[in-house]
Design goal:
By secondary structure, the protein is α+β, with helices and mostly antiparallel strands. The chain folds into two domains: about 1-60; about 75-315, Extracellular Endonuclease, subunit A (Extracellular Endonuclease, Chain A). Helix content is about 35%, strand content about 20%. The protein contains eight helices and 13 strands. The protein has helices at about 1-45, 45-60, 70-75, 110-115, 140-145, 165-170, 180-205, 280-290; strands spanning about 85, 90-95, 100-110, 150-155, 175-180, 205-215, 215-220, 225, 230, 235, 240-250, 260-265, 280. The strands form four sheets. A seven-stranded antiparallel sheet has the order 1-2-3-6-11-12-13, sandwiched between helices. Strand 2 and strand 3 (about 100-110) form a beta hairpin. Helix 1 (about 1-45) packs antiparallel against helix 2 (about 45-60). It is elongated, with a radius of gyration of 25 Å. It starts with a helix and ends in a 29-residue tail after the last helix. Bound molecules: 2-acetamido-2-deoxy-beta-D-glucopyranose (NAG) (3 copies). One 2-acetamido-2-deoxy-beta-D-glucopyranose binds next to helix 6. One 2-acetamido-2-deoxy-beta-D-glucopyranose binds near residues 309 and 310.
């Protein structure tokens, strides 16, 4: 009798300890795999893109969550496109290897990066080629020299003043596009950048996506013709227009986000024009750029159903 009790005890102890070992093993395997996944997501844009799905399928144990990576913060509302996505310390960019300018640059502005620290700024930074781009697709300083165009920032330098290294990265030529200087880069475009920073100061959390557009000209019938200049021996495309899509997060817990978009022609613009006159329908920009902005938000939450029947993106301002 006592013998069989002993046997039962030994067997159940053995069973319990093997179950415990198994659970512990699974747990450690899982946390190890999660760590590897975190690392992968921080390195690889495509892993980052699908990471919400992976995490959802993966989280049967609670894992430490507070370490939301900066890329996941900047790209919280989705990637506009997935062509050659590149991570920098305070912005994310998709590079167009054919045109040698970015397709889009996304930033998340908060008071901290806009207000910045004393002594941090563009005075201490230099334009430089981005060596992470393969040499045959890279634009160089020589391409811009004597071209007559400014090296225009897509992610503005003054948006990234919380660290000098962040500000320095905005001077990489992947974040630069040829812009008309007088009356554009130092005019209306600058006004738009200042306006965006004011929004960040005021609302505390602003998502901005900036990029180039190339204007199609009607040729009669259903035919179109796209023409643009290229500069330098690497043939850096000169965009005909630039867009900025802006999203403000509401400070109220149930408040809806607010989006607006601006398109400016790469031209000398009269000074009297107000920013309001460059407002455009976001869906129209998506159509011409082939991008999808802030897909994490239902458009019906934001737009009415009436949007212009004629293209406003490529209006004339002169
Ligand atoms: C920023 O760039 C300047 C000029 O290229 C360089 O001297 C400086 O060390 C850089 N600072 C950081 C923090 O990378
Ligand atoms: C667009 O709508 C306006 C008024 O709603 C109309 O006058 C105009 O002819 C329309 N344009 C086109 C191209 O349909
Ligand atoms: C609207 C527009 O096309 N603007 C100009 C942008 O810059 C190029 C290069 O000079 C011009 O050709 C475009 O006309």
């Amino acid at each position: 009798m006592s013998h069989s009790w002993q046997l039962l005890l030994v067997v159940s102890l053995g069973l319990a300890s093997s179950v415990a070992c198994f659970v512990a093993g699974v747990y450690f395997q899982h946390s190890h795999a999660t760590r590897l996944l975190h690392k992968l997501v921080q390195r690889d844009p495509y892993a980052c893109y699908i990471s919400p799905k992976i995490y959802k399928a993966f989280c049967f144990f609670d894992t430490e969550d507070g370490t939301a990576h900066r890329v996941q913060r900047i790209m919280k509302y989705g990637f506009p496109g997935l062509d050659d996505v590149r991570f920098y310390s305070d912005f994310v960019l998709s590079y167009d290897r054919r045109n040698r300018v970015a397709h889009w640059v996304c930033e998340h502005l908060q008071k901290s990066n806009v207000q910045g620290l004393r002594g941090v700024g563009r005075g201490r930074a230099n334009y430089r080629s981005d060596w992470s781009v393969p040499s045959n697709f890279r634009s160089t300083l020589a391409d811009y020299r004597h071209s007559g165009f400014d090296r225009g920032h897509l992610a503005a330098a003054a948006n990234h003043r919380d660290k000098q290294s962040h500000c320095n990265e905005t001077f990489l030529l992947t974040n630069i596009a040829p812009q008309i200087g007088q009356g554009f880069n130092s005019g209306a475009w600058n006004k738009l950048e200042i306006y965006v920073r004011e929004l960040a100061q005021h609302f505390g959390s602003v998502y901005v996506c900036t990029g180039p557009l190339f204007k199609p000209r009607p040729q009669g019938g259903d035919k179109w013709n796209v023409e643009y200049q290229m500069i330098g021996s690497n043939m850096v495309a000169v965009p005909t227009h630039f867009f900025k899509v802006i999203m403000l997060e509401s400070k109220l817990p149930l408040g809806k986000p607010y989006m607006e978009a601006y398109v400016l022609p790469n031209a000398t613009l009269p000074e009297k024009l107000e920013l309001r006159q460059f407002l455009c329908d976001i869906r129209e920009i998506e159509h011409y750029a082939g991008l999808d902005f802030f897909q994490g938000i239902r458009r019906s939450d934001i737009f009415g159903s009436n949007y212009p029947n004629e293209s406003q993106v490529f209006r004339d301002f002169n």
